[in-house]
Amino acid sequence: xxxxxxxxxMLGGIKDTLYMTTVSTLFAYLLGLPLAILLVLTAPxxxxxxxxxxxxxxxxVNIFRSIPFLILMILVIPVTRAxxxxxxxxxxxxxxxxxxxxxxxxxxxxxxxxxxxxxxxEAANIPTIIFxxxxxxxxxxxxxxxxxxxxxxxxxxxxxxAIGGGGLGQIAISYGYNRYQTDVLFVTVALLIVLMQVxxxxxxxxxxxxxxxxxx
Length: 216
Hints:
mainly alpha
């Protein structure tokens, strides 16, 4: 493919990929954060142990985390159509991305909150403990988790190209694989690697800035 055609194609792919990754990460955290808080609160050793609730939430999270993303995309096509009006394209792909990422995000947040030293938790109401103690104390770990989650969602968005998800993944499949244009395939892979590295570098830099153990 000539450069005058490849450049706009790749720029469009980068735009769609960043759009899917950013919006999906945002909505995954909007769903994953309250889910993680409920898991922490209702756990057997939590502040408000609720055995039945915890087991139900834990099972649901484990089930969705166990389904391969491409299979999940196919399973939720009716939901995607109901929400987005169609089952293909970058906007429609956000729906399965959020469904796949929210349980993963919930586990990442849960793990970060459980790392907080119980000694810093003083007797107070639940909202105060969560938003003024647990989350601030786990801030660095939460940022690291967000970086990992964002990278994972970027990888999911690339996989979605196999069934018309849009972005760099679809370009790699449609042009690089189906049309045997290896130059396009290599460029899309290189761009995905660069995007992943940029996310990692920015996330790790922010986490180091918030880490009390590191002198800035």
